[in-house]
Amino acid sequence: MAARVSSTCALFTEAVGAVLSSWPVLQIAVDNGFGGVYSQQKAEWMVDAVQQYFCDNSDLEQHEVEDFLSDLMNNEFDTVVDDGSLPQVAQKVCVMFQQCQQGKLAEVREHIHQLELKRATGRAKVTPVKAPTEEEEESGDDEESMEYDEAGAGASVSSAAVKDQQPPSATATEEEDDGWTVVRRKK
């Protein structure tokens, strides 16, 4: 009996790891060092923290898990998750915990496998744009591009196209007598 409980606990820990490592918000936070030099270690620690949270509180609701994950992201990575992914992540973890509790280990393993496949093929990647030098700005050379690549589908946008598509400025500036610039909205 004790061996089954420990294998279930280990499988749930693996499931939490799979869910969190496939979460784009956490990927971006780790890749960009939002948690400092120990971002990767914090992400690994989060897996254990979430697993422990479930073990200590077996009757958790999805909104409680959302709050816990939100607090972890805010405290450890200075990141506020507002992309709508938090309920989905919390639901996946809750479902896998229930499946582990019910002994549906094959289903949990299949979910883990699917998440690992998704993570291997769909890693979010952002390539920054190189800032133009003064010479390039003067010559009008706009060959830089910003690329966003997720799951192998890349979209490239020319910086000239972005400049043309931006809406006109909604603010007007004027210089005050004391040298300060006041920014006001147009009416």
Automatic annotation (TrEMBL):
Pfam assignment, any one: WGG
Entry keyword set: rRNA processing
Biological process according to GO: rRNA processing
Compositionally biased intervals (Low complexity): 151-162
InterPro entries hit by this protein: Pre-rRNA_process_TSR2 (IPR019398)
Keyword Metal-binding: no
KW rRNA processing (keyword) present: yes
Superkingdom per UniProt: Eukaryota
Acidic residues composition-biased segments: 134-150
Residue numbers spanned by region Disordered: 121-187
Function: May be involved in 20S pre-rRNA processing.
Family: Belongs to the TSR2 family.
Protein name: Pre-rRNA-processing protein TSR2 homolog
Name of the gene: TSR2
